[in-house]
Amino acid sequence: MGKGVFQVPQAVNEPVKSYAPGTPEREAVLKAYKELYNSKVEVPLYIGGEEIKTGDTAPMNPPHDHQHHLGDYHKASKEHVEKAIKTALEAREKWANLEWEQRAAVFLKAAELIAGPYRYKINAATMIGQSKNIFQAEIDSACELIDFLRFNVEYMTRIYEEQPESNSDAWNRLEYRPLEGFVYAVTPFNFTAIAGNLPSAPALMGNVAIWKPSDSQVYSAQVIMEVFKEAGMPDGVINMVMGDPKMISDVLIGHRDFAGLHFTGSTTVFKNLWKQIGENIHNYRSYPRIVGETGGKDFIIAHPSARPKQVATAISRGAFEFQGQKCSAASRVYLPKSMWEEVKNYVVEDVKSFKMGSPEDMSNFITAVIHEASFDKLAKFIDAAKNDSDAEIVVGGNYDKSKGWFIEPTVILTDNPKYSTMCTELFGPVVTVFLYEDDQWEETLKLVDDSEYALTGAILSQDRYAAAEATKALQNAAGNFYINDKPTGAVVGQQPFGGARGSGTNDKAGSILNLYRWISPRTIKETFVTPTDYRYPFLGE
Ligand code: NAD
């Protein structure tokens, strides 16, 4: 702390721009899109102040136009990862001891750079590299990332303000130290904001981080590094390395100073990393913090009293926005039989009206899925649904990989509540509907609850008693529970995000709870009049 008890600017959510026809933001983002699309980039490793081009490269291609070459990113060797550790630990000396307001200023500046001069570049990079339509890019790479940065700064000061009781003899203080070592941040392809948040939340609290972005998100990850640099982030505080995830994890998790894992991605990868940490537990200086937000099988359940049009809209938006590639995307739906005809008609009408194609054409609601492996997996499940006796395709069911990884938004109907697509996370524009008998509400709540995941879920009901019953019966079925809404679209500062069971450690990214994981408090008791005699009064004659 410098010479003052400083207050940070109050965090506010970044307003979402509309990008409606004729707006200046639409023109600006399309210009940025064209510029990026028609140039080539080389993404280096960022280790300390160095941008390292290793020569061992992999290409980057837009999912909606996979033959177009955006450039290449460089991959790390074992030696580069070891260098990143050494560099991060050297940077830690100064960063961990820097006054908090200096750290805060770096992240507040980064937020404003994204809100202003970098907004269209980061949105265009996300549209191109991850195939998001402009609205999905804006709410992710601009607004959510800005919100993470602003709100985390405010939460940090709230933590620092939390101090123990003192009395006239002794002053008790809590000092919120960073962890002793480095944090390993591993991020998914689907949110540029998560990619930016996972290394920066620990760094804000005084930690140093080594960040491994997803191969499919490197294109916008580079813009994040550019922003951090421009914001004055000292060299070595956040280092970015790409390459073989197994090798990178072996080196980082195998190191004595590994102090924490900040992960978002699939359940299997996280469980394997946890296991690897367990196997190394005797080698560490401290017990590492393990934070992971993982897969989901998110639900919508409608009570017979719900409004069919509202239910249909929750499905159309909740299941298909960003091609169903949100961890919160609705992928299993439970409807009363009496409601099906009406909901089906609305959803089919919606799906048939969706336009699919490149995000550059802003009339497209749907674009491509992230890569070929995802495309192939989705096509396999769709084909199975066409053949299985307990499933049928209601709408969609086509796919085409000739230009991009395009999967038609697909609704499957099943009479088997344990049908594969009711249980397996597919991570694409496929939603499965199960119809229950109208008088089987309680039994259906039990079915919904019976899942290995517990990330998001929504109940739609006009009946207050039914809504209350579902809220109680499904209390462990979702970390983010929605009443009369779709199960997606959590906003930082408003709906802290995360789930339990197979969905994660539920440390709620973008909330104060997450920041607590990146500190190791030290209690300092200072006594003013120090005793000079060991004898207590009870020892007297
Ligand atoms: P993924 O698990 O394939 O990859 C995530 C990250 O892990 C990537 O950086 C990847 O390179 C890395 N990785 C893969 N194998 C690894 C290994 N052996 N060692 C170390 N790292 C390894 O996930 P994805 O496809 O990028 O993202 C989709 C998944 O993420 C879905 O399961 C989704 O539900 C989940 N997700 C969850 C949340 C949440 O908040 N719960 C948010 C976003 C995404």
Question: How would you characterize the overall build of this protein?
Answer:
With 541 residues, the protein is α/β, with parallel strands linked by helices. It has two domains: 24-52 and 83-294 and 504-524, Aldehyde Dehydrogenase, Chain A, domain 1, CATH 3.40.605.10; 298-483, Aldehyde Dehydrogenase, Chain A, domain 2, CATH 3.40.309. The chain contains 16 helices and 23 strands. It has helices at 24-37, 78-95, 100-115, 119-130, 134-161, 192-204, 218-230, 245-253, 267-279, 308-320, 340-353, 372-387, 420-423, 441-449, 464-473, 512-516; strands spanning 41-43, 45-47, 50-52, 57-60, 71-74, 170-178, 182-186, 208-212, 238-240, 258-264, 289-293, 298-302, 330-336, 391-395, 399-400, 406-407, 410-414, 430-436, 453-454, 456-460, 480-483, 500-501, 519-527. It has a seven-stranded mixed sheet, sandwiched between helices. A five-stranded parallel sheet has the order 9-8-7-10-11, with helices on both faces. Helix 3 runs antiparallel to helix 5 and helix 4 (119-130) packs antiparallel against helix 7 (218-230). The model has no long low-confidence stretch (mean pLDDT 98). Bound molecules: nicotinamide-adenine-dinucleotide.
